[in-house]
Amino acid sequence: xxxxxxxxxxxxxxxxxxxxxxxxxxxxxxxxxxxxxxxxxxxxxxxxxxxxxxxxxxxxxxxxxxxxxxxxxxxxxxxxxxxxxxxxxxxxxxxxxxxxxxxxxxxxxxxxxxxxxxxxxxxxxxxxxxxxxxxxxxxxxxxxxxxxxxxxxxxxxxxxxxxxxxxxxxxxxxxxxxxxxxxxxxxxxxxxxxxxxxxxxxxxxxxxxxxxxxxxxxxxxxxxxxxxxxxxxxxxxxxxxxxxxxxxxxxxxxxxxxxxxxxxxxxxxxxxxxxxxxxxxxxxxxxxxxxxxxxxxxxxxxxxxxxxxxxxx
Length: 313
What we know:
313 residues, alpha+beta, Umud Fragment, subunit A, Aminopeptidase, 2 domains, eight-stranded mixed sheet, seven-stranded antiparallel sheet, 33% strand, elongated, disordered N terminus
């Protein structure tokens, strides 16, 4: 059963809908620290795989535990393949470094893949029902489950349809025309050793206001207040190196990366030597095409086994 935290700071650990960026479990260490520090942590159930013991929307309280404390029948929270899952412990095989933990969802027909002990985050010690009335009325609970599953399937179909549309060039042209003037660009300039001060870039001239001298910079693209892309420029002896160029998956193909590269070229042209440099993995053909389209050329050398690119301004 998929789970997510009731705290908004941990929203990234739930399974995202199809077609969105996947962040994976980047906060596992922090979750473990919170469990050890506060001794309990609460999560919200996100699927029906443990029905009827747990239903979607129920809140579970988890406490840290060791493999020696686990017993068959416990509900445990663990991570697997980039997801947080809460299933029932049905068996423990082996001992020591050979210990394998076997789990199963109550609504599933078969057991899950065996777990390593380090995958277990904790044991469920309390459950708060989201829909208490569903427990007293079997028909009402079953109907709520059917409706929710239908909504999930409909959402997945819509997401698949959107991904299919995003693969068509005509759709990207239309969306680029609609959104190009809605995306705001900012340049961040160093302020001290750790911080950047951001300035809105004028739409008329596309000029990074406030950029003077040879210094690192950070470009940010926002749509409706949400960050959709970024680029970091780092000053070097040969010119400016482009590092960490990234556009969120759902906004790719809309010209955001091209605009970020154009703004980076404007900023780098004010320094000496006026050169933009980048390195791309050979397998990343989409990035190579983007840089080539932006006027970069391959220098023939490799930088950390990556293709070296250069643009003279």
